[in-house]
Design a protein that fits this description.
Elements lengths: L2 E4 L3 H12 L8 E4 L3 H8 L6 E2 L3 H7 L2 E4 L3 H11 L8 E4 L6 H7 L3 E6 L10 E6 L5 H12 L3 E4 L5 H29 L4 H20 L5 H8 L5 H12 L3 H21 L5
Parallel strand pairs: 1-2, 1-4, 2-3, 4-5, 5-6, 7-8
Antiparallel strand pairs: 6-7
Protein name: Pyrroline-5-carboxylate reductase
GO biological process, one term: L-proline biosynthetic process
Function: Catalyzes the reduction of 1-pyrroline-5-carboxylate (PCA) to L-proline.
Length: 273
Amino acid sequence: MKIGIIGTGNMGRILAEAILDGKAVSPSSLIITNRTLSKALEIKAINEEIIVKKSAVEVAKQSDAVFICVKPHDVYKVLEDILPVLSPDKCVISITSPISTEQLERVVSCSVVRAIPSITNRALAGVILLTFGKKCEEKWKKQLFDLFTTFSEPMEIENNITRVASDIVSCGPAFFSYLTRRFISAAVKETEIPEETAVKLASEMLIGLGELLRKRHYSLQTLQEKVCVKGGITGEGIKVLENELGEVFEHLFQATHVKFEEDLKKINRQYPK
């Protein structure tokens, strides 16, 4: 299978590198391009067998599965450009959450999929969220599940939970990175611990936490219960979190959903009804 990636910015590059590291396909089966071609050439520098093309049309023409990894408002223009070379046996995969598979199917006649990746895929871990178009051929569902399994945990979702699922899977690493940095800053401010030491300790703690969950030694609930001994120090810290966090996460999801609705209105103007 020839895989094309149109757009090698942050997520496009992460996807390309995960595909290579996961050995999903050989480097010579990966065809990429970017509006600023030097970004695509940076990926080629990792492996000379990767094929770089100057245009989206060239990538789509030579690929079986075509990943569109550009900004949401640029997707429609890319679809228009590559439409003449999209034969019915190809599959178009958009990584953009505001664009539905129904909208993609109104523009192209081949199989379509929405696949929302996460930065965690770069470590060959984490989830990738999949929504298949109604006309998506069964062969593509199987092939893409097999492809994504090499570097992630593919999970099929319904359209109505796209935003919240994306918040958890795709935005979640940024949210929890921010919380961890605040955790570290507070430790440095309130004690004599050097920042470098606090960063090292917190990073290793998160890695260990991930391993405990991955190996299913504990669930989130049982892990807290194991660490939080009745009357102990951890319990006092939990009380502070319970008292002061309030509805911060409820407000977080409310804010992301408001922004998502704004994005949907802009995107909907581009696509045929």
